[in-house]
């Protein structure tokens, strides 16, 4: 599913919608983000965290120099940035969070993860620079929640 984002505000609105999607599907609380530098990954995550209960007191920023930031939202968010991680390697703490359904797990630079480490229930988003805007390409995986997650975005397909 492709969504055209014409402004940073549209990316923020998409982050808010994504927070609602992840809350509505407690078995799928992982968002794997891909995209180059400046594609809008951190902008989307900031808005997503702010939209969660308790998000107003969470100071979200890309954890580029520590592997993970934990935000005091409900449910808590574990925000990983794998930019500095060796492609194909994985930090054991990330696996622990992926197995723990009590957290929302947000991963920037998810393309650096080995495919075998991805959980079967997950939401993926690739953000692509597209002229003056961006395109968000979503895919949902899992028998229980995949299509239900994508249905939340159905009305946004043309543009946001």
Description:
The structure is a single chain. The protein has helices at residues 8-24, 41-51, 92-99, 146-153, and strands at 2-5, 30-34, 68-71, 77-81, 104-108, 122-130, 133-141. It has 160 residues and is α/β, with parallel strands linked by helices. The chain has a single domain (2-156), classed as Rossmann fold (3-Layer(aba) Sandwich), CATH 3.40.50.300. α1 (8-24) packs across α2. The longest helix has 17 residues, at 8-24. It is globular and about 35 Å long. It starts with a strand and ends in a 7-residue tail after the last helix. The mean pLDDT is 83.
Which secondary structure elements does this structure contain, and how are they paired or packed?
Elements: E1 2-5, H1 8-24, E2 30-34, H2 41-51, E3 68-71, E4 77-81, H3 92-99, E5 104-108, E6 122-130, E7 133-141, H4 146-153
Parallel strand pairs: 2-5, 2-6, 4-5
Antiparallel strand pairs: 1-7, 3-4, 6-7
Helix pairs in contact: 1-2
Short description:
This protein is an alpha/beta fold and 160 residues long. It has helices spanning 8-24, 41-51, 92-99, 146-153, and strands spanning 2-5, 30-34, 68-71, 77-81, 104-108, 122-130, 133-141.
């Amino acid at each position: 599913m492709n969504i055209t984002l014409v402004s940073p505000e549209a990316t923020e609105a998409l982050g808010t919608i994504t927070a609602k999607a992840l809350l509505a599907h407690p078995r799928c609380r992982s968002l794997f983000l891909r995209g180059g530098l400046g594609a809008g990954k951190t902008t989307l995550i900031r808005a997503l965290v702010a939209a969660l209960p308790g998000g107003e007191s969470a100071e979200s920023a890309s954890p580029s120099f520590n592997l993970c930031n934990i935000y005091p939202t409900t449910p808590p968010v574990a925000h990983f940035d794998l930019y500095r991680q060796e492609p194909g390697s994985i930090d054991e703490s990330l696996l622990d969070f992926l197995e723990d359904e009590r957290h929302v797990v947000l991963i920037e630079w998810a393309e650096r993860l080995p495919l075998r480490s991805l959980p079967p229930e997950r939401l993926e988003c690739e953000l692509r620079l597209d002229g003056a805007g961006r395109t968000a390409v979503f895919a949902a995986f899992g028998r229980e929640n995949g299509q239900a997650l994508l249905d939340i975005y159905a009305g946004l397909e043309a543009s946001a």
